[in-house]
Design brief:
This protein is α+β, with helices and mostly antiparallel strands. Helix content is 30%, strand content 8%.
């Protein structure tokens, strides 16, 4: 179908590995980072502000 898939709720390395083997390469979840306020997320990812583009 040509759809892009984002896996949500990835909590372990094993889950990430299985998803990659199935062709899903975009995911989010506690395995990568706990939820964070926008300003903290921006700081962690090198953005100057939460609304930086």
């Amino acid at each position: 179908m040509g759809l892009d898939v984002i896996a949500e709720g990835v909590e372990t390395a094993d889950q990430s590995t299985v998803l990659a083997r199935l062709g899903c390469h975009v995911y989010q979840g506690y395995f990568f980072s706990k939820p964070a306020p926008a300003a903290e997320f921006a700081r962690r990812n090198g953005a100057s502000s939460p609304t930086a583009s």
